[in-house]
Amino acid sequence: MEVLKASDVPVSSIVESWAISASWAPMIFIFTTYLFLVLKVGPKFMETRKPFQLTNFTRVYNILQVILCTVFVTWALKFGLKIDTFWKCLSDFNDREKLLEYKIAQWWFLHLRLAELIETVVFVLRKKQNQVSLLHVYHHISTATIIWMFMKYCSTIMDLHTAFVNSFVHIFMYFYYFLSSYKSLDKYTKKAKPFITGLQLIQLVIILGQNVAAILPSCHVTRLFYVQAINAAILIYFFADFYIQSYVKKKQK
Questions:
Q1: How many CA atoms within 13 Å lie on the side-chain side of 41?
Q2: Which InterPro entries does the protein's record reference (predicted)?
Q3: Which tens digit of pLDDT belongs to each residue from 148-158?
Q4: Full domain range(s) for residue 210
Q5: How many folded domains does the chain comprise?
Q6: What is the structure's pLDDT at 177?
Q7: 2 lies in some domain
């Protein structure tokens, strides 16, 4: 009987062996539980209770996100991501070890984004149910779902550009959230809020452009980029509408 070396095991088989990517079941369970908690159980639980003061928790959480996003961005640059290839069609990996390293990084990136579901739970516990908006919930679920699909089915480095831009923007975003937890900085953070939303919009436009490059007929990579492009377009609509309603129209009034 031939003994298979670790280096002979296909990367796809290794990914399939991970609990989170063995099937759709774990993701469906996570999202079903999430929606049940933040839309039904949580609000019902908080009906007769005072808002929880979770300031210290959110500060630690936001700083952890800043650190972990910085680690991911640094890793991506060391891994070989080049900014000048952002708009170019890149072929699939032909180096098994590099592909495996990338898949492990995707696994960590997925769990980093799944951790963001905690934010919605915090909104509910602080009795800020108005912040549990369609944009907020859709953004978290769609982002994690697409990362999962790319981890399970895709073997091109092109998606790393998307993860890089997303993590880079999140460094600024979570640092802003950290600063905004200090009331003494209100006059500065309130002025910065439209710029943070604008930065998220710019991020989505860049991601959409990069995905358009991937779905051109001359680029033979996974068709999952169609899904990601459509999702980016939907999020651009949501964020643009939020920006107009929250900043442009309020300023006009």
A1: 8
A2: ELO_fam (IPR002076)
A3: 999 999 888 88
A4: 10-252
A5: 1
A6: 97
A7: no
The pTM (predicted TM-score) of the whole model is 0.91
Q: Is residue 148 part of a domain?
A: yes
In a domain, 28, yes or no: yes
Average pLDDT of the residues in 186-194: 92
Give percent above pLDDT 90 in the chain: 74
Nearest to 157 by CA among 78, 110, 100, 91: 91
CA 171 to chain centre: 12
Distance of alpha carbon 222 from its chain centroid, rounded? 20
Rounded-to-integer distance, Cα 105 and Cα 47, Å: 40
CB distance 112 to 20 below 8 Å: no
In a domain, 4, yes or no: no
Backbone angles phi, psi at 171, to 5 degrees: -60, -50
Q: Which residue from 62, 231, 45, 198 is spatially nearest to 126, judged by alpha carbons? A: 45
Take residue 145 and report the two structure tokens written for it: 């779902």
